[in-house]
Each structure stands twice: as structure tokens, then as C-alpha cells.
Amino acid sequence: MTTSSAATRVLSRRTLLAGALAGAGIAVAGADPAGAAGRGRRRVLIATNEPWGTYHVKPLLAEARRLGWELVQLVPDLSGIKPGDPVPVATLDAAPRADLLIVTGAGDWPADCAARLHRLPLAASSLAYQLPVEAPRAHEFRSRLRAVTASSPAEAKVFDDYLGTRRRITVVGTPQTDDLPRHAPEAGTVLVLTSVTRSDGTGGSAPGTELLLDAAESLAAAGKHILVGLHPREDRTLWERYEISTVPSVQAAARAEAAIGIPGTVFPVVTALGVPLVGCVDPRLAIPDYLLSVCSGTIDAAGDAVSAVASARPVSRDVLYEAVGPVGGSARRLLKVWRKEGMRVHGHR
Fold this sequence. Notes:
The chain is built from twelve helices and 13 strands. By secondary structure, it is an alpha/beta fold. Strand 11 (258-261), helix 8 and strand 12 form a beta-alpha-beta unit.
């Protein structure tokens, strides 16, 4: 397959629109389905444990555009891609020529992509939290890894255990902290950070939603204004009795005096804003210690929510750095590692 023919199959909202309108004899300004690999532009393919979860790649787009790079997320099909998603995607069968493959985990989908694209230079970058237990398929590709990155020192230790690499991992920070809003809390506002109630083909769920719902009800009864930061895959109908933020959870956190939720990837980022956090910990929930470390406290009973939120305080700088890593410029540092350590040969398939 030639560079041009492969790249024409990169599937993004803009490309699909261009194709539809082109079939009607209409051109779309700015649409470039032929791709830029043939013009020397760098292209990076990304495969994640959540095959359709483009929200982990989205924070990297601005820096990629600044550098003239193209990021393309590999997906099994288009069923989980919403109209208007800004992250370009491609199926594995239609993967365009590229300079580098990034895996953000060692689940079945990243492992399948690494096996299929075995000639591409490979790197691993942690963009969401994992557990410190070696993934069953990590051994299939870890000897190929030219670079491994993580957001923070604590996340690096977990990612090393997860991959079973026993090697140096470069700490680059969290791209979501590159454009943090100013913390301007509104009196009485508590941000509720949800997880995902039900697993689906895009990814798994975390127990604890019932506890969090009951905690939110207790806080509302105590006069708190509940602002909900929905996980991108959470069931919206569960939370419609409250104000659901129309902006991402990190931006919503700027309005909150405190936040409460099921510990997840967004927790350290919210902490970086200076917002004190309370974690809802279900006995069935397995999470790495560093996500708990950014919590001012944890609860396992909804009746404790009001007092826990009232006494919540921001974490220390040392805890913040260990869990979050360097704040600001993270996407730039991450792409620098990809360019320096990963991109040795141009245009492999």
C-alpha cells in the first residue's frame, strides 16, 4: 500500500465529511485526507486500552499541531466514535504510514496493534492509571520499546510494574495540566467526579457509583451545590438531578470548594488546581496508592461525606509532585521524548 492510498483511509470527522461532500461534488476547505507523511510530516499512531477512548489523546492535539505532527488513534471500528470528535482515528486495516506507534497500555487492543504493526518503532506512554501488576500481554512487545514515559514519579513506578520492564521511565508530567484554569471557588459548590457505572467495549467500569450517588445526596441535603464532572463514558441519566458541567472536569473544578469522587486518572490533575479531594472507596475497588495519596481523606459510607468535605484540605507540594509530576509543558516534554527516542526511521509500516 502506498503512502497516499493508506493515508486517504485515515478516518476523522473532517475526512468523513469531506468524503461525503466530495461525493456530492462539494469540496471542503482544509480537508486533507491524503495525509502529510509523503510531505515529510511526522505521523504517530496511538493504541489505548480503551480502544474508542479518544479523550486521553485529545490533550496532545494542540502541541502536535504546533509541531506539525499528526496523531491518529487506532480503533477497531467507528462504532464508538462520536460525530465531531477532534481526534483523527483509523482502523487497524486502514492504518496509514507512520513514524511511530504508541501504546498507552498492554491490554488486548494495544497488544494486537503492536503485533500487527511489528515493523513500526514502538514506545509506551501512560496516559491513564494502571495497576502495579504485570499485564498478561506486556511480554509480547516490551523488548521493542524504545522509550517509556509516565506522568509522575509514582505513576512511573506503577507503569514499570504493569509493563514488567525494569527500566528507566521518563517523567513528563500530565498534559491535562498544561492549560489549568485559575481556581475561583464558588461558595458551597462541591464537584462530584464520577467514574463509569457499566463496562462496555470501550473500557471497564469501577465499583462505587451507588456510594457516590448517596454521598452527593447527603451533600445536597446539607445545602451544598452539586456540580457533576462526568466521566466521558458515564451514564448521564444517573446524575441529571444535579448541574452537569458543560466543560471538562478539570475546568469545572475551578468552581469548586472541594471535590469528591471515585479515585481515577483525573484526581491528580484536579489536585494540581489546589482543590481538596475526598475519595469514595468501595471495598471492591482496586486503585494505586498514589491516587489515594492526593485525597485529603476517603469515605466508605455516604453518611461521612459532609464531614469529610468540610475538613478537606489541599495536599502538600511534595505529595503533589510525586503524584502529578511537573506541571505545565507536559505535552511538549512527551512529544520530545517520542521524537528523540522513538522516531529513528521514517515511514515504516
